[in-house]
Design brief:
This protein is mostly helical and 130 residues long. Helices cover 40% and strands 6% of the residues. The protein is built from 5 helices and 4 strands, in the order αβααβαββα. Strands 1-2 form a two-stranded parallel ribbon. It has a two-stranded antiparallel ribbon with strand order 3-4. Strand 3 and strand 4 form a beta hairpin. Helix 1 packs across helix 3 and helix 2 packs across helix 3. It binds a DNA duplex (13 and 13 nucleotides) through helix 2, helix 3 and strand 2.
Length: 130
DNA sequence: AACGTGACTTATT
DNA sequence: GAATAAGCCACGT
């Protein structure tokens, strides 16, 4: 513990760091999704920061759309390809997922088979009976 | 700097 | 059970 108050910079950096950290986590988590699996915004949001809203995850994706982040493996809690319209072509996302071996249910991903739980237990965390 | 918008989710009506 | 409201936080105008 040599120095802990080296706040030479303004506090602005702090908030900036926080959000960058959040994005980074989101990227990491998204990248850690194995091929043939998908995850949801809510899950990632919780793992990236239990306080952040799932919306930010989507935003992070948009920001990371140019990175190596497989955004197509991230869908909403309903398994719907909500962000398909952001891939350049509405059908591109579905194509990518299909190429990964992911099965579809109409316009949505078959979550029951492809929902990737990063570290969550087999049982839902707060979902009721579901 | 206020306002609107958005790749979400949950609760209420 | 579909429609509406509200919470969430960052970003562009």
């Amino acid at each position: 513990m040599i120095k802990k108050l080296v706040k030479t910079k303004s506090k602005t950096s702090e908030s900036q760091q926080r959000k960058e950290n959040f994005y980074t986590k989101v990227y990491q988590l998204t990248r850690s999704i194995p091929k043939g699996k998908v995850s949801t915004y809510g899950t990632i949001a919780e793992l990236a920061g239990s306080r952040v809203s799932a919306r930010m995850v989507g935003y992070a994706m948009h920001t990371a759309a140019n990175s190596d982040v497989p955004c197509h493996r991230v869908v909403n809690r309903n398994g719907e390809l909500t962000g398909k319209h952001h891939f350049g072509h509405p059908d591109l996302m579905r194509d990518l997922l299909l190429a990964e071996g992911i099965q579809f249910k109409g316009e949505s991903v078959d979550m029951q088979k492809h929902f990737y739980d990063f570290a969550k237990p087999s049982k839902s965390k707060k979902r009721k009976s579901d």
